[in-house]
Amino acid sequence: MSKAPSTFGLLEPFQYEFFRNGMLAAVLVGALCGLIGVYIVLRGMSYIGHGLSHAIFGGAVVAFVMTWNFYLGAGAWGFIAAVLINQTARRTKINADAAIGVVTTASFAIGIALVSRYRNFTRSFDAALFGNVLGVTPRDVLAIAAVLLMVGFIIFFGYRQLLFSTFDAEVAAVYGVRTQWVETLFALVLAAAIIASMQILGVTLIAAALVIPAITARLLTDSFNRMLLLSTLCGALTGFFGMYLSYYVDVASGASIVLLQASVFGAALSAVSLQKRVGSRLLRTLQ
To answer: How far apart are CA 60 and CA 211, in angstroms?
Structure first.
């Protein structure tokens, strides 16, 4: 019996429900990380994405052991960790990077300790660390879409406050912007984004997905609005093609997406460097 032509074509992966769910999730997660990543990069907070993802892992393990709802348990843990980092850096002489190191490493250690104590969920442990696209369900896709809509809503209505506090928090406070509330809200948004991304990317790769599309967009434009658009598009497109490539190369979807993002960044960096060289040579010729 002959198989349908699409089985041998480019649409072959889409005949599987798990791939369709994973593809939708990867695109949504890519767009979400790209959008949030702009604020993270411009705030000089690249390390917090890496650290907070490790903190949320600890919360996810605690939620599993205590039989709590995963999203509520991990989300509350991540939000508390982010607020604790901000308050520690703001109210003490400890730098933000040191506060991140202490809080997030301790949270991650709690997760590791519980995993070693309760050895009946090794697969869940691996999925949280490295992602598990095979386990993505329509419910997970809806949850990611809901987080993306929430983040888009917050950024749309809090655009000016977020923009002002991103570039100069001290001046923003002088002009009446409640920077502490803005920081708390941003911590909540970041925690939600990381939780939504964990199933696709895993704890170990979320930080890269938050940073790479944003710095790629920063290379290509000086406009904040265009940077938001380019970073979101870069995240969504690399999520799509990274997921697609992972099917044929037979590697983890998170690794495929991040490697593709790194390749796009390398291409953008090469193009910008070449453009500067050509421009400088042309300027010398004219002189």
So the answer is: 23
CATH number at residue 83: 1.10.3470.10
User: 62: which DSSP letter?
Assistant: H
DSSP-derived letter for residue 132 is -
Please give the single-letter amino acid code of residue 86. N
At 64, which amino acid appears? F
Look-up of token digits 């199933």: 199
Q: 44 — alpha (psi -120 to 50), left (phi > 0) or beta?
A: left
Check pLDDT > 70 for residue 114: yes
Domain with 57 in it = 5-286
Neighbouring CB atoms inside 10 A of 9's CB total 9
| pLDDT, tens digit (0-9, with 9 covering 90-100), for 180-231 | 777 778 878 888 888 888 777 877 788 888 899 999 999 999 888 899 999 9
pTM above 0.85, yes or no: no
Give 119's Cβ-side CA count (13 Å radius). Answer: 1
Q: Please state the domain count of the chain.
A: 1
